[in-house]
Design goal:
By secondary structure, this protein is mainly alpha-helical. It has two domains: 107 residues, no CATH class; 227 residues, MetI-like fold (Orthogonal Bundle). It contains 15 helices and two strands. A hairpin with a 5-residue loop joins strand 1 and strand 2.
């Protein structure tokens, strides 16, 4: 197992380098750099002025060298102007070139500077990531138990009315995009003009004019059931259908296994068959699907965070991409790649432990 983990970690590192290099190459194409120069300087800058600005920042170097500097594998680029003033990524304002470190990339904890938010990109990613982690935690707490319950109940008696009803519900939730279900939930539960809210308000069943809030901005500071439930429910509804369908298929397969038939012939109660024999084996396959939901939640909440104005990781990704914030976009990409690879590793290790039929040589 230890050798297996070491091999997977090595593959993860190579994969992370390849993926981040592709993102780095695409974000550092000359049109993007030219747009960055004009955004930070003047939109009326001449081509010569743009080239001078890019040269000063080290953007005109070869892509492999810029990538190695950004990662922190080689010394950072430094520029000396006509007056002998040295500037570069590692040199802070007011700091001399001799005092500044030679290496200042991702490995050294330097994530760059956000041109949109005018802050350190690492600080922004940390703050926004915490907000999205809070959202992901509550989504998983609602989505996973609900999906497993629906899948197990549907798979216990394949072809029954319960199976058809729950399967239809699972397919409907998955087939409905978040921007559709989110708008519907806002219209029903967060709009003062909706019949439900008008009836609740008329009977003094709610304190305000609506049952829930249509925006989750206040949840960033103080998350409550009123301002945080709708975005959590929107994401959970969309993700639970896939887990429920996988659980249902796995449960239905286990219920037809030979050892289940043997238990029935021996007179074991249906409840004990499901709980003690079928359930554990049926949850092996959904485990991998559940682990895959974590990277999806990290990047897939873009629509929901934008819809509910929740300024988390997905919202930051949209802002960085829409405003050509190269450093912040690269930092977000690194976090996304690392989260995906780590969850894949945990999924593989967990699958080996859960499924005794798999052996790792």
């Amino acid at each position: 197992m230890g050798l297996f983990i070491l091999r997977r970690v090595g593959v993860m590192i190579l994969t992370a380098l390849c993926l981040t290099y592709i993102v780095f190459f695409l974000t550092n194409l000359y049109p993007n750099l030219e747009k960055l120069a004009k955004t930070q300087g003047n939109f009326r800058m001449s081509d010569e002025a743009v080239a001078s600005w890019l040269e000063k920042g080290g953007y005109l170097q070869s892509t492999p060298k810029k990538y190695a500097e950004w990662v922190g594998l080689v010394p950072s680029y430094r520029y000396t102007d006509d007056e002998g003033v040295v500037s570069g990524r590692c040199i802070d304002p007011g700091q001399s070139a001799d005092e500044a470190p030679q290496f200042c990339g991702i490995l050294q904890g330097n994530w760059g500077f956000s041109t949109v938010f005018k802050e350190d990109a690492g600080k922004i990613i940390n703050e926004r990531g915490i907000q999205t982690a809070k959202l992901m935690l509550w989504v998983l707490a609602l989505m996973v138990p609900s999906a497993l319950l629906v899948g197990v109940l549907a798979g216990m008696r394949e072809g029954s009315r319960t199976d058809r009803t729950l399967s239809t519900f699972a397919i409907t939730t998955t087939a409905t995009p978040e921007y559709v279900s989110g708008v519907l939930l806002i219209a029903v539960f967060a709009a003062s003009a909706s019949p439900l809210n008008q009836w609740l308000a008329a009977n003094d069943l709610i304190e305000g004019r609506t049952l829930f809030k249509g925006t989750a901005t206040s949840a960033m500071e103080n998350a409550t059931f009123e301002n945080f439930f709708l975005p959590v429910l929107t994401i959970a509804l969309y993700g639970m259908g896939y887990i429920a369908r996988m659980t249902r298929a796995s449960m239905a397969e286990v219920m037809t296994a030979q050892y289940i038939r043997t238990a029935r012939l021996k007179g074991v109660s249906f409840h004990n068959i499901v709980v003690k024999h079928a359930l554990r084996n049926a949850l092996i396959a959904p485990f991998t699907v559940i682990m895959l939901q974590i990277p999806w939640l990290l990047n897939g909440v873009v629509i929901v965070e934008t819809l509910f104005n929740f300024k988390g990781f997905g919202w930051t990704l949209v802002q960085a991409a829409g405003n050509n914030d190269i450093e912040l976009l690269l930092g977000v990409s690194v976090v996304s790649v690392v989260v995906v690879l780590i969850t894949q590793l945990i999924s593989d290790i967990g699958y080996v432990y859960l499924n005794p039929r798999i052996s790792v040589s």
